[in-house]
Write a structure and sequence with these properties.
Layout (H helix, E strand, L loop, with lengths): L1 E4 L5 H11 L8 H9 L3 E6 L5 E10 L6 E9 L8 H16 L3 E6 L3 H9 L3 E6 L10 E6 L3 E2 L5 E2 L1
């Protein structure tokens, strides 16, 4: 498995995975992925040795360069590859980008997605609040979570 920038050629597979992973919550369209890439979001793909997209993650970067903020917009892993560390690798890759910027990271996650919540908490995220009926059309609630900014020192070490 290798990580690489998400490319437009990956988008049809992302859309197929969205439909598989998020069937009741308005899976992202090809247009949504194209718009994210056009807006300069930081997207990472996990690709197998056979060039199959196993997962993806995207980080939106907002605000002025002197005071940036980021938001984890999406992360998805093909069920065939879940539990093999792909999601962790993708999350760490986008968090590295946030760390390079010294930016906090925000996200929303379904309150019933205990696996994802655990992953986020292990990586320094804390729950900030609850967004009722956030996911549509299912009406599922979401936690808003935040990871504080981490600055990367010149020696390559992260500091809070």
């Amino acid at each position: 498995m290798r990580l690489e920038p998400l490319r437009r050629k990956h988008i049809p597979r992302c859309v197929a995975l969205e439909k598989l992973l998020f069937p009741g919550d308005s899976p992202w369209s090809a247009h949504a992925f194209h718009a994210e890439l056009d807006a300069g979001a930081h997207y990472v793909a996990a690709v197998t040795e056979d060039d199959v997209l196993a997962g993806y993650a995207g980080l939106a970067i907002m605000g002025p360069p002197a005071d940036p903020e980021t938001s984890l917009h999406t992360i998805g892993v093909d069920p065939e590859f879940q539990g093999a560390g792909v999601g962790t690798a993708l999350l760490r890759a986008v968090l590295r980008r946030a760390d390079e910027l010294g930016a906090p990271v925000f996200l929303e996650v379904r309150t019933d997605n205990e696996r994802a919540i655990g992953l986020y908490e292990r990586h320094g995220f804390q729950r900030l609040g609850l967004r009722r009926r956030y996911y549509q059309p299912s009406g599922a609630d979401a936690y808003t979570m935040k990871r504080p900014p981490v600055r990367v020192a010149e020696a390559g070490e992260a500091t809070a």
